Amino acid sequence: MKYFAKLLITAMVAAACADAKPLKVFILAGQSNMEGHAEIGTFDYIGDDPATAPLLKQMRAADGKPTVCKHTYISYLTGGETHGEGFGKLTAGFGARENPTEDGGKIGPEFTFGITMDSALDEPVLLIKTAWGGKSLYHDLRPPSAGVYPRTKKDIKEDRYHEAQSGKYYRLMIEHVKKVLANPKRVCPEYDAAQGFEVAGFVWLQGWNDMVDYDVYPEVPENSREPRFAKYSACLTALIRDVRKDLKVPEMPFVIGVMGVGGANADADTVAFRKAMTAPSLLPEFKGNVAAVQTSPFWSAELGAIESKHDQVEQMRYFLDSRHADHPNADGHMNEKQKEDCVKSFEAKLISPAEVALWKRGASNAGYHYLGCAKTFALMGKAFADATLDMMKSRNRP
After folding, report:
1. Quick one: pLDDT at residue 279?
2. Which of 45, 71, 205, 265 is the most exposed place for a label (fewest CB within 10 A)?
3. What is the DSSP string of 135-198?
């Protein structure tokens, strides 16, 4: 009997080993929108829409608190000059942080990206996120094969963007990924060294600092053959090649989160930048392993309309301070209280109580941070995960 019991145990262990799979590793990188500025307090807004209410259920546990993933873990490198790491089981709070090691009360795309992977994959999942606000691809995150950033006359005059700092945050990203993967069990206790790990995907969400820079990307004539943001496309193409080379994963699925600020009503420069971000995914060498995910459909048009009214209020405040000829304080007779009363009166007429309530429910930040809307970031994270899973399936097909 002991002999047969031994055989049974051996068979069960062998079967378990046969089912075991390598730890799946996904890298998420970028600037402030990859950090994520959507406050947890805007979660309820997701449930207002029948189409996204099911997603909110995945984001919350039975007790109403944010979901804690069962088998998905995260290491998050962020911070100002002093960089720090937060890590643990994935839950809400791994968005933008004042202290890199502490819950910041916000989410970025990592939350629903991880929830989606946690549900779709049988093996444990590790997210390695590196993100810093206000960083450009042309200088801060510049990949090695793009060469050292060529400073402009303005850079020299303003004493900024030095050659030695070119690509600093690219190097920090790669160094951190390699550090985590040197000992995955530190972050992911479920890691089995016998099974190893697989770097299964990379998500890029960045672009604002490049899009608004008219020095590096000057305006071009309408009939120009080279688009204004052609250099961004080239740099992003180099980034895809370089991260694959540095991490030794030649055809690693790569998702480009295409700038969606402004939604369907974005200005011409934003539309041009979206084309530049999408361009690398159309190259023959990246067919089937690079996907451009448009994030503009996830922009909240109703919150964006309210933000436009807030901008008008701030414009009124500016005009009163500057004694603009077309506004009540043209002759400068108003004191500070009178000016503020005038602004409040204008705001009350422009923005209804219902809009004030809607804004508080769904928004928590500025437009360049997708209004700090959790619904937007949740939809982005899921879309990034779905695109990654599609590419993973394609790679595994015979």
Report:
1. 98
2. 265
3. --TTTTT--GGG-S----HHHHHTT-S-GGGTTHHHHHHHHHHHHHHHSGGGT-TT--TTT-EE
